[in-house]
Amino acid sequence: GFFRWTYRLTLLSALGFTGYLGYGIYLLRHPAEQIEPDPSKKTLVILGSGWGSVSLLKKLDTENYNVVVISPRNFFLFTPLLPSCTTGLIEHRSIMEPIRNILRHKKATVKYYEAEATKIDYEKRLVYISDDSEIKGDVSHTVVPFDMLVVGVGAENATFGIPGVREHSCFLKEVGDAQKIRKRIMDCVETATFKDQTEEEVKRLLHMVVVGGGPTGVEFAGELQDFFEDDLRKWIPDIQDNFHVTLVEALPNLTRQILPMFSKQLIEYTESSFKEEKITIRTKTMVKNVTDKYIEAEVTKPDGTKEMEKIPYGLLVWATGNAVRNVVRDLMSQIPAQKNSRRGLAVNEFLVVNGTENIWAVGDCAITNYAPTAQVASQEGAFLARLFNTMAKTEDLESELKRLSIAQQEAKTEEDRNQIFDEIKERQRQLRRTKQIGPFQYSHQGSLAYIGKERAVADITWWSGNIASGGTMTYLFWRSAYLSMVFSARNRVLVATDWIKAKVFGRDVSRE
Ligand code: FAD
Ligand code: NAI
Predict the structure, then answer these.
(1) Do 396 and 376 share a structural domain?
(2) Which residue's C-alpha comes closest to atom 5 of ligand 2?
(3) Could you tell me if 402 and 358 lie in one domain?
(4) Which one in 333, 338, 403, 487 has a CA-CA gap of 20 to 30 Å to 210?
(5) At 56, which CATH number?
(6) Which atom in ligand 2 lies closest to the alpha carbon of residue 449?
(7) Residues 329, 419: one domain?
(8) Contacts 24+ apart (CB under 8 A), 478-485
(9) What is the number of domains present in the chain?
(10) 276 — alpha (psi -120 to 50), left (phi > 0) or beta?
(11) 351 & 365 share domain
């Protein structure tokens, strides 16, 4: 009996899953015909195709505006799984979703220009755009006028002006960065095993240094050590004794600073797990200069004295957080109310850029009370969609009310007048209801980070309490949570297949 029921249940869930996937794929392949929005409606320009902008687009009723999207990247990137792309555990295309697919599924058409916004003229309500891709047409610079503008351009990599960072290190923010790292890891390994290589040079080439102990640095270090343990040491046993990952952090201790969103207990768990994984953590080590073969860092010793130290490296990954993009800095300089803002666009509780009335900002380029995370950016985007949908409804209702009050004045009979009066009352009631949209409120769903060796840490809000957990079960939770969060059914299938592929055959160690 038990086995028959288990069999039936398995069959049923398999059927359910296949049906769900099939429906997802059908929807993806057969978008409905789109309507053209009314040209007399307002032009809403959205900059960027990241977490903030795409979450806005997902929920926006595009028939209410003439929507224009401008981004140099014609896809959305699921950044939480980007560290896995550096080792080939996940192929980068599995976590990309074309912006064209997203836009084609909207009810009314949306224009998309693959371009970078180089300047926003706040007074004239213009965005200057430039096509920076390899292939350019006769026109590659132009302007786009806007009535309403949403800035969702994210942030740049912070380098603090430290010499040599841009020339010699890899960042970890975009797909290209992950591809570059993947290539370099294998290049270092192959060069280290080159004939007659000196021992010192082998050590240098196999020293993988990560600067910045924030979540990006921690997750990447974990993925890299996994790559070594699971695959590299098996395929290339020569490198076993010398391959080494070091995480460098300027701040004094790992507690709090390394993963600021996690509790002390989880940070201690991360530290001890790294020790077990043989990843070296070097705190109180502030990088001051970078050359092609070593970094120079100021190390604070236990007695408080400081000393400069050269640390040779083969691969250097730079993950020291966010900086403001030029286009955002320039916009800030045009608005007096932004004078005291340093880290990005200061916004009010409705995400309106302070000092303006028709510009909004979402995600990493906006300064709010929350950390610059995907979770915050996507909630902000969804909030703006609600706000804009409401604004459009309000405008429709207001013009309808105007029309009705004229009709009421022109009405011939008492009966007509009364009927119109009732309609006006109803519209006014609807208007009051739609106008009730409150300010943006972030609801924290918890923090999750992968720390290597099939372990993850999680700080999850559950009902009204908090659950802090680390370990293998958390890792399984991390995997299933991210699998459910990736953008589309297509992404879900691709990511799951990549994981299975890596488990069965190991990661691919060929250098493209
Ligand atoms: P982005 O997602 O960076 O998007 C910015 C968009 O603007 C891009 O499409 C870009 O091409 C475009 N753009 C850039 N310049 C211009 C321009 N001049 N004109 C027009 N468009 C432009 N957060 C979490 O909550 N959980 C995680 O697990 C997590 N993991 C992460 C892992 C990594 C490796 C990284 C780098 C970040 C991670 N984050 C995570 C943080 C999260 O990715 C960011 O907070 C989030 O991407 C911010 O969204 P955004 O829309 O502001 O910017
Ligand atoms: P971060 O700002 O969190 O950390 C950067 C670290 O680099 C800091 O600890 C800083 O002290 C250190 N640093 C700066 N200059 C240095 C120097 N010269 N030498 C040595 N160390 C130096 O940056 P990160 O990790 O890129 O994260 C950016 C944002 O993205 C964060 O808000 C984070 O919450 C989010 N994120 C979230 C993830 C998750 O939830 N799993 C994963 C990755 C990012």
Answers:
(1) no
(2) 320
(3) no
(4) 487
(5) 3.50.50.100
(6) 41
(7) no
(8) 478/448, 478/450, 481/448, 482/78, 482/80, 482/81, 482/448, 485/78, 485/80
(9) 2
(10) alpha
(11) yes
* pLDDT for residue 263: 75
pLDDT at 127: 98
pLDDT digits (tens, 9 = 90+) for 299-346: 999 999 999 999 999 999 999 999 999 999 999 999 999 999 999 999
**What is the model's pLDDT at position 255?**
46
Give the phi and the psi of residue 326 in degrees, each rounded to 5. Answer: -55, -45
pLDDT at residue 254, as a whole number: 53
| C-beta 257 within 6 A of ligand 2 | yes
Q: How high is the pLDDT of residue 257?
A: 47
Q: Are 396 and 386 contained in the same domain? A: no
Is residue 444 a part of any domain in this protein?
Answer: no
Show the ligand 1 pocket: residues with CB < 6 angstroms: 47-53, 70-73, 79-80, 82-83, 116-117, 152-154, 172-173, 216, 325, 327, 363-365, 372-375, 377
pLDDT number for residue 467: 67
Q: Within the chain, which residues score under 50 in pLDDT?
A: 255, 257-258
Domain-located, residue 471: no
| Same-domain pairing of 328 and 430 | no
Q: What is the Å distance from ligand 2's center to 97 Cα? A: 25
Parent domain of 396: 392-434
Gap from CA of 149 to ligand 2 centroid (Å)? 29
- In angstroms and rounded to an integer, the radius of gyration of the C-alpha atoms of the chain is 27
Examine residue 340 and state whether it is found in any structural domain, yes or no: yes
487 Cα: distance to centroid of ligand 1 (angstroms): 14
Q: Are 215 and 204 in contact (CB under 8 A)?
A: no
Q: What pLDDT shows up at residue 470?
A: 77
Does 286 contact ligand 2 (Cβ within 6 A)? yes
- Sheet of strand 446-452, all strands in order from the earlier edge strand to the far edge: 446-452, 455-462, 465-471
Any domain includes 470:
no
Q: Is residue 36 domain-shared with residue 120, that is, in the same domain? A: yes
